[in-house]
Design goal:
Layout (H helix, E strand, L loop, with lengths): L1 H27 L10 E4 L5 E4 L3 E8 L7 E9 L3 E7 L5 E7 L11 E13 L6 E2 L8 E7 L2 E8 L7 E5 L2 E2 L10 E8 L1 E9 L5 E9 L4 E7 L6 E7 L8 E8 L7 E7 L2 E9 L4 H6 L4 E4 L1 E9 L5 E10 L4 E7 L11 E6 L2
Parallel strand pairs: 1-8, 2-9, 10-16, 18-24
Antiparallel strand pairs: 1-3, 3-6, 4-5, 4-7, 7-9, 10-13, 11-12, 11-14, 14-15, 16-17, 18-21, 19-20, 19-22, 22-23, 24-25
């Protein structure tokens, strides 16, 4: 019986303690309680992501509506810095602010940056400083991620006698291994605008291409390093990666063989040669721009031939080339007529999408 009495008293004591804790928690978070001083806080501290050139929005709230306007100061620090104020009108418990994240916040070659938005102070029109946060130790802040306005750029090493190279965007190397002939980087995201593009001999500071290239946001580009090393230069083309119609593939052709004459590219339909790209000479920037559009063709398997322009002489045969529905391809003539081994005349097929 004595043990039962002891257990009963312990149970009663536990209920009293739990009831007191519940009451304390309810009072601590009750905005209507007059036992807490006026304070201001963020309605949400969830991390936010925004693209530069757009607004970052957040909301502040007070525990009870005040009869005078409150000026709230905020600051963003970290990868970028911004500061400003917002107004909480009288007689409301919350208000939202929109902060413009300027274009250029992200510094190339990075395509994102991060910061932390912090509420620094809250002051009423009469000069009363509200507590920021429910407790004196509170920090009202949230993480911010900013994405740059970007373009997609692919770089291809198409110079047959050039060594492996490094690619530098705005003087920062972006490749981890040397880019060798005739490889491509695939599409890289770069900050939109005019970018400094350098191609260096791998592992050195010897620059073989140095160009300022404009890239528009949300567009796709290919940059080809062409010609022999002594005359190497970049060609920049825009890539329209719109999805082909059902049953179609998109194809384009560039002539990047410096010592090869003009050619016509087509396919064999039985014994008939069907030209697709006629009388193409070694590309310069003007011709590459003119030839940058993709041509729709029926998906399927083709026996492709490259012929000397205006003749029936075949200089390169590419049998069994499969074009998959919905895919987009770039084909380019590579190497040298006078070349051997890796530098021999040939063709490269890239899948753009």
């Amino acid at each position: 019986m004595k043990i039962i009495n002891i257990l009963g008293r312990c149970l009663l004591f536990s209920l009293i303690v739990l009831s007191g804790c519940k009451k304390f928690e309810e009072e601590k978070f009750d905005f209507s309680s007059t036992s807490l001083p006026p304070y201001l806080e963020l309605k949400s501290k969830t991390a936010k992501t925004v693209t530069e050139g757009n607004n970052l929005s957040f909301t502040v709230q007070v525990r009870t509506a005040l009869t005078e306007e409150v000026t709230v100061a905020y600051e963003i620090t970290g990868g970028f810095t911004l500061s400003g104020t917002m107004k909480l009108p009288a007689n409301v418990v919350e208000a939202s602010a929109s902060v413009l994240i300027p274009t250029g916040t992200v510094v190339s070659p990075a395509v994102t940056t991060t910061g932390i938005l912090t509420i620094k102070s809250a002051t009423t029109a009469s000069g009363l400083n509200l507590t920021v946060g429910r407790l004196s130790t509170s920090v009202e802040k949230f993480d911010v991620k900013v994405n740059a306005l970007t373009a997609n750029v692919s770089v291809t090493h198409a110079s047959p006698d050039a060594p492996g190279v490094d690619l530098l965007i705005d003087n920062t190397k972006v490749n981890t291994a040397a880019l060798t002939y005739p490889s491509s980087t695939g599409y890289l995201k770069v900050v939109a605008g005019t970018r400094s593009i350098k191609v260096n001999a791998a592992g050195t500071s010897t620059t073989v291409i140095n160009a300022n290239v404009p890239f528009e946001k949300d567009k796709n580009y290919s940059v080809y390093a062409v010609n022999v090393l002594a005359s190497i230069n970049p060609l920049v083309v825009e890539d329209n990666l719109a999805t082909p119609e059902t049953g179609k593939a998109h194809v384009r052709f560039f002539h990047f063989s410096p010592d090869a004459p003009a050619v016509t590219v087509g396919y064999m339909d039985g014994t008939d040669f069907v030209p697709i790209f006629s009388d193409r000479s070694f590309e310069n920037q003007a011709s590459a721009t003119a030839n940058q559009s993709f041509t729709p063709v029926d998906a399927g398997t083709y026996d492709v031939e490259v012929r000397l322009a205006g003749t029936t002489t075949t200089v390169l045969s590419l049998p069994g080339i499969e074009l998959t529905p919905g895919k987009i391809y770039t084909v380019f003539a590579k190497g040298l007529v006078s070349g051997t081994g890796d530098q021999a005349l040939g063709a490269e097929i890239q899948v753009n999408k």
